[in-house]
Design brief:
Helix content is about 5%, strand content about 45%. With about 130 residues, it is mainly beta. Strands 2, 4, 5, 6, 9, 10 and 11 form a 7-stranded mixed beta sheet that branches. Strands 1-3-8-7 form a 4-stranded antiparallel beta sheet, with no helix packed on it. A hairpin with a 6-residue loop joins β4 and β5.
Length: about 130
Amino acid sequence: QVQLVESGGGLVQAGGSLRLSCAASGPLFSSYAIAWFRRAPGEVREFAAAISWSGDTPYYADSVKGRFTISRDNAKSTVFLQMDSLKPEDTAVYYCAAYLSGRREELDSGALYHTALYDAWGQGTQVTVSS
């Protein structure tokens, strides 16, 4: 059973940076694809970024491309989301999610944007960006 725990959220001014972490427990972490989703108040959960099991292929939503960087350290079973040039519209609860099969064709097909692909979720960490 995979468990995910997010950390690193907080309050930051617009233009600032935060680094989120997603620590996983359970077997075979290096075979999972991991994604970050976010949910702003009153909105549905939306895809932000994902990374393949090997770490060589990142995926980003257009809204965060060029500002966010996803990476992973399989030795530490942790995925990171470096968020720079933050905007007030980035305010949300951020969740990490694991796709246990990690199949590249599923990621490349666009399925990664949909919550239904993912097998495990963390509890979320709040990010608030003030203007």
